[in-house]
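FAQ

Q: What does a record look like?
A: Structure on top, sequence underneath. For example:
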């Protein structure tokens, strides 16, 4: 809320928050430009993910309790809803990666509604881009390893079509596979977190502005609406945070499977 207050305090008229919400100075004067709040909490999110996994699975008991019980519920969800539908018999082999991706992205996303942090890490494109391209390089590596380089690249093109169609189909297929797919994989997560953060900031600022910064009888109702919408959109955003972690991990499983076995 402090950041929103600063945006509002110097203005006589309400100004909606914009992309300045995503600009962060270095953590300390003279520090490197890259060492910002999102970077710090990206690392903290990774450590939180490790801590959750360690507490849940480091010393498993025959009858799960506490964190192990929660961890196993999460494991079963990722395995049954993401891993098995795409990877089948290969699921268990890739569960450490899928579970880590799902949990890390969810932790990063949910930081948006955690007091003090109040920022979704994935709303900075660099973080989902690193994850997406890592998954995609893994896909290509697996494809070449399991299918052979020539067969892997040829399997990307459907067989049995009239030859003139391949003049258009080949560049489109390769563009989609090697450029658009990893790009959209990263941007889908980034865009949802980016837009969600701006929406939450907007309604929060509406409530703060009309109820505290510039309270008026006419604006009181608008401020109340802002507060109500902030609560509603926070709940909705928490659902989206979970959904985007699920979708990103699901696509990762799909890409891994396409590397292990030919798409066509």
């Amino acid at each position: 809320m402090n950041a929103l207050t600063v945006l509002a305090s110097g203005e006589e008229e309400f100004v909606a928050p914009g992309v300045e919400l995503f600009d962060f100075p270095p953590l300390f004067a003279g520090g490197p430009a890259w060492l910002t709040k999102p970077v710090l909490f990206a690392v903290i999110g990774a450590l939180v993910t490790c801590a959750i996994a360690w507490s849940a699975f480091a010393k498993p008991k025959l009858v799960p309790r506490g964190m192990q019980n929660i961890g196993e519920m999460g494991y079963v969800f990722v395995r049954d809803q993401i891993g098995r539908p795409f990877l089948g018999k290969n699921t268990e082999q890739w569960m450490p990666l899928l579970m880590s991706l799902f949990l890390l992205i969810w932790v990063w996303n949910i930081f948006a509604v955690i007091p003090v942090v109040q920022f979704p890490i994935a709303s900075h494109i660099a973080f989902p881009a690193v994850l997406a391209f890592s998954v995609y390089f893994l896909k290509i590596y697996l494809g070449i390893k399991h299918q052979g380089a020539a067969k892997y690249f040829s399997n990307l093109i459907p067989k049995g079509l009239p030859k003139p169609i391949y003049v258009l189909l080949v560049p489109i297929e390769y563009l989609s596979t090697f450029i658009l797919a990893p790009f959209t994989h990263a941007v889908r997560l980034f865009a949802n977190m980016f837009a969600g953060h701006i929406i939450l900031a907007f309604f929060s600022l509406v409530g703060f502005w009309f109820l505290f910064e510039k309270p008026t009888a006419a604006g009181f109702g608008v401020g109340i609406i802002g507060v109500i919408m902030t609560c509603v959109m926070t709940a909705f955003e928490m659902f989206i945070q979970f959904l985007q972690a699920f979708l990103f991990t699901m696509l990762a499983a799909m890409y891994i499977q396409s590397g292990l076995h030919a798409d066509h």
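Q: Is there anything notable about this one?
A: Residues 2-260 form one domain.
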